Automatic annotation (TrEMBL):
Keywords: Lyase, Signal. The keyword rRNA processing does not apply. InterPro entries: CpcT/CpeT (IPR010404), CpcT/CpeT_sf (IPR038672). It comes from the Bacteria. This is Chromophore lyase CpcT/CpeT 1. It comes from Dulcicalothrix desertica PCC 7102. Belongs to the CpcT/CpeT biliprotein lyase family. Pfam families: CpeT. The keyword Signal applies. Residues 1-32 form the signal peptide.
Length: 229
């Protein structure tokens, strides 16, 4: 964590961001109001999460680092699907992560509801686990008109993360208790994220029932950078 603290100090952030995560199965984002309306903040966070990011730059200089691709796109809810926060106009995203060599086999999939809470001072990213993960693989490859999700498809909410706006970045961290999980031996996931205009750095970690870290970032972050195709 010394490395994380140093990065935040150098950026003048002074506070730890979440993700994500995305931005893990669960990404909750909180954004402080800074002369920007709550709806503008929701839009800005969604735009930064949208598109394609990968870790190819790190993989090129570190043979042990995996090249991971993260893809996110907007989806529409049909009339039967209801947002959990009705005080604003939330934006819904579909997000998946996969090894760049196995894009048809994502190892993490989620729906994200980006909304405003705390009287417009915070943006929340509430993560849902899709009810049928196989049916939504590569959903972002479909035309916008076909990215329609029902309340059943959306699945159950899993975890929320709040992002705080600081300068040009959004910073945050998962709750102290982390987010429940069942991924590669982990029952809990924590994540620290710095979301910028060009991508995001994440410290994604999985812990077993004994509190031991079983996978994820150590001192170095996962560095996702936006790419174009």
């Amino acid at each position: 964590m010394k490395a994380v603290t140093k990065i935040f100090q150098n950026c003048g952030l002074g506070i730890v961001l979440l993700g994500a995560s995305l931005l893990s199965n669960y990404t909750l984002v909180a954004v402080a109001q800074d002369a920007v309306s709550s709806q503008q903040q929701i839009e800005e966070v969604a735009q930064r999460l949208e598109g394609i990011m990968d870790t190819s730059a790190r993989a090129r200089v570190n043979s042990k680092a995996a090249n991971v691709r993260m893809t996110a796109c907007r989806i529409s809810l049909n009339n039967n699907a209801q947002a959990t926060n009705k005080s604003n106009n939330p934006i819904f995203l579909y997000q998946e992560q996969a090894l760049s060599s196995e894009l048809n086999k994502p190892y993490r999939q989620r729906f994200l509801e980006i909304s405003s809470v705390n009287n417009g001072r915070t943006v929340r990213s509430l993560s849902y686990k899709p009810a049928n993960v196989q049916s939504v693989i590569n959903l972002c490859n479909k035309p916008v008109s076909e990215r329609i999700v029902t309340s059943t498809d959306l699945g159950k909410p899993v975890c929320s993360v709040y992002l705080t706006r600081s300068g040009e970045n959004y910073i945050g961290i998962t709750p102290n208790e982390g987010c429940p999980a069942n991924v590669r031996g982990a029952v809990k996931i924590t994540n620290t994220i710095v979301l910028s205009k060009t991508g995001m750095n994440t410290w994604d970690r999985g812990f077993d029932a004994n509190g031991k870290q079983v996978w994820g970032a150590k001192a170095e972050s996962y560095e996702f950078r936006k790419i174009t195709q």
